[in-house]
Amino acid sequence: MKLYYSILSPYSQKVMIAFYEKGVDFTPTKVNFGDEAGRAEYAKIYPLGKIPLLVDESKDLFIPESTIIIEFLENEYAAQGTSLIPSDKTAARRVRFKDRMHDLYVSEPVVTLYFDTMKPADQKNPEAVAKARKTLDVMYNYMEQSFAENQFASGNEFTMADCAAFPGLFYAQKLHPFSQYPNITAYFQRLMQRPSVQKVLSELLPVLQAM
Ligand SMILES: N[C@@H](CCC(=O)N[C@@H](CS)C(=O)NCC(=O)O)C(=O)O
What we know:
Blueprint: E1 2-5, H1 10-22, E2 27-30, H2 36-45, E3 53-56, E4 61-64, H3 66-76, H4 89-118, H5 126-149, H6 160-175, H7 182-192, H8 195-210
Helix pairs in contact: 1-3, 1-6, 1-8, 4-5, 4-6, 5-7
The structure holds glutathione (GSH).
Glutathione binds next to helix 1 and helix 3.
């Protein structure tokens, strides 16, 4: 199985954490978003141009969207590694809800902040930045309460929702710090201790240092 990804991409990191938690092998296939040729090449594979994307031509598999890739992994490899989506329907719905919360209201605003820092002064969008920061503040308050009672995002077991939480929080450390929230800080430290997260960081940190 080929995973089209970039190590800088939060949604790629989310899926890689899931692969490592499940102990499922994959062939990492880097997408070069840094130049036009790389983008054009990838658009031939997936016209929407979004990563991550999981492809297995021999099995006629073509799976975009980080959450759907993890759903596929859990279905195919249920008995292997960490259970990322519980078999109980109510527990699974709660995990899916938290996964959506982390993608839409943590990772997305953090991505907005990240790209705004890269823009020249005359292209910055203070309105979008203010909205992103407000969303993050609401989420931080919500998460702070949640982690007072739970070790992980949906109860006391690591799930897909935690795969989704790590990348946004990782970039948020610099872009919209959560250090004044002790429960989120402790949760982030728990995530940092996961071998799956360490494996992603071992690829990510050298790239960030070189930038
Ligand atoms: N909802 C998608 C989001 C994927 C996404 O936005 N990926 C970004 C990188 S983190 C991307 O491919 N950006 C390239 C572009 O939009 O052209 C998922 O969960 O996989």
